[in-house]
User: What shape does this take?
Amino acid sequence: MKILVIQQKMIGDVLVSSIICNNLRTAYPNAQIDYLVYASTTPVLEGNPSIDNIILFEEKHRKSKSELAKLVFEIRAKKYDLLIDAYSKLESWTISLFSGAKRKISYKKPGRNFLYTDNVPFAPFPKTNLGLAIERRLSLLEPLDLKIEIDPIPKLFVSEKENQEALALLEKHNVRKDRKTIMISLLGSEKLKTYPLEFMSKVVDFVADNANVNILFNYFPKQIEEAKTVFNACKPSTQEKIYFDLLGGDLRSFIALMNQCDVIIGNDGGAINMAKALGKPSFIIFSPWIEKKIWATFEDGIHHLSVHLKDYRADLFEQKTEKMLKKEALSLYQEFKPEFFKDKIESFLKKNIS
Assistant: This one.
């Protein structure tokens, strides 16, 4: 049996959709399972035994119809028995249409149902604490009626060499071994997903005031000025706990470093999803325009919890569409005072840092 799973776009999406591959491997241990993703997301798939081949959707496939056609014909030549499209956008519709797969599964969408043999309802509300991001992916397996116990948790695989390199990096920066270590998801993937820097510095102060910990900042070298802004606004007593220059050289290095941390706190995004896949407790601050019900995965109020401006100022969201909220995101962020959820951070730290 040959299976193709499609999930383009961001790291978090690709990591979460890998649960489809993981459960297919359990159900069909001898199947060939291939995964079509963007090249930039492949580090979160390294070492995953559920995936036989990673097929790259590259920038050239987006910009050139002829390159996209080449990719489609390459996929068609592989003669897949089953295709699962977890992306369900124009690019994947084209691939699905001409894939030649015998069975094709995706979400039910007006005007697109003819592309697939099985169209699954796109759930509007979560039924469990798994969150819609997980539940929707798992719903794509329902037409197969798999006779297995479904595992909903994404997995990351860190090699012993990577773990040792991360430990050596911590030792190089003289990170104290007698304290727990907290990763701060300092910046979102864009400004509209980034908690205001002056507020984030207060969050870091809350952390330092309530726990005797080491604090690491997650940021790219190109974001160093924003990171410095947060650091400089923190209290001197907080700054003493921050290892500002301790960074992984690439995404795999970050994963290995995160594996040595105890919890993650900060902006929603790929870093949070990777931490969860490593089994680390998480505290998420959502952007006002992002729907919490989708990405507040595994929320239990203890090991995983999140905050959203709507939790505190529901009046600001009345009769507003997602498009309107996105346009107003920066001004809405200014209403999302860190004092609103100070007690929740304190509670989270008590339960997860001892």
About this structure: The chain has a mean pLDDT of 96.
